[in-house]
Design goal:
Layout lengths: L10 H5 L2 E5 L6 H14 L3 E4 L4 H8 L5 E6 L8 H13 L4 E5 L2 H5 L3 H15 L3 E5 L7 H13 L4 E3 L11 H11 L4 E5 L5 H10 L3 E4 L2 H6 L9
Parallel strand pairs: 1-2, 1-8, 2-3, 3-4, 4-5, 5-6, 6-7, 7-8
Helix pairs in contact: 2-3, 4-6, 6-7, 7-8, 8-9
EC number: 4.1.2.4
Family: Belongs to the DeoC/FbaB aldolase family. DeoC type 1 subfamily.
Organism: Roseomonas elaeocarpi
Length: about 230
């Protein structure tokens, strides 16, 4: 995976970078089916859901080429490493191709860097080769803490660093994407998530170094339809 210097020129190219995301706690079976249908239609990269919905989504997407993505330790990152690892193993068992985990944010801010690295490594080991994205929750960190979190993710074997859960005080910014890309270099993916609701916003984030976009408004991003004012 390398940095994307030039934003996608058309809707199909952008769609291929989108994790079509449905993480709200009241997501229904009908909504999950709709998300999967939309992902098939627009050829999104993945559908990202809570672990309890992985098996349903993986079955609905079978044969489509669209991946199934699960979050872990979401949205606070405050679960024990062994719980995150178990959650990861269960999601992989149920068909998850990709895992988006939240780091132990408090441990990072306390300078407990070995604990943060070990937390990521526990999930990495449970992934069994699936793609691992590490959510650092940029809105809660200083720039130096963001750099440290990115370095720890690299050291622990992550495939991506990711800005946000979309459930805290802020989402993806161009400045944060540029900072993260600078730290991880060209080899790792960088995922922008939280508050990405327009073509122009997605293009700016990709130009800054994002190689994946997480959004609940994926259809709006690729069709130009109005996006919801709230949501991931």
């Amino acid at each position: 995976m390398t940095a994307t210097a030039t934003p996608p020129a058309d809707a199909a190219a952008l769609a291929a970078l989108i994790d079509h995301t449905l993480l709200k706690p009241d997501a229904t079976a009908a909504e999950l089916r709709r998300w999967c249908d939309e992902a098939r239609e627009h050829r999104f990269c993945s559908v990202c859901v809570n672990p309890v919905n992985v098996a349903t989504v993986a079955a609905a997407l079978e044969g489509s080429g669209v991946k199934t993505c699960s979050v872990v330790g979401f949205p606070l990152g405050a679960a024990l490493p062994e719980i995150k690892a178990a959650e990861t193993a269960a999601a992989v068992r149920d068909g998850a191709d990709e895992i988006d985990m939240v780091i132990n944010i408090g441990a990072l801010k306390d300078g407990q860097l070995d604990a943060v690295r070990d937390d990521i490594a526990a999930v990495r080991a449970a992934c069994r080769g699936q793609v691992l994205k590490v959510i650092i929750e940029t809105c809660l960190l200083t720039d130096e803490e963001k750099r440290t979190a990115c370095r720890l993710a690299v050291e622990a074997g992550a495939d991506f660093v990711k800005t946000s859960t979309g459930f805290s005080t802020g989402g993806a910014t161009v400045a944060d994407i540029a900072l993260m890309r600078e730290v991880v270099g060209p080899a790792l993916g960088v995922k922008a998530s939280g508050g990405v609701r327009s073509w122009d916003a997605a293009q700016a984030l990709i130009a800054a170094g994002a190689t994946r976009i997480g959004a609940s408004s994926g259809v709006a991003l690729v069709t130009g339809a109005p996006a919801a004012k709230s949501g991931y």
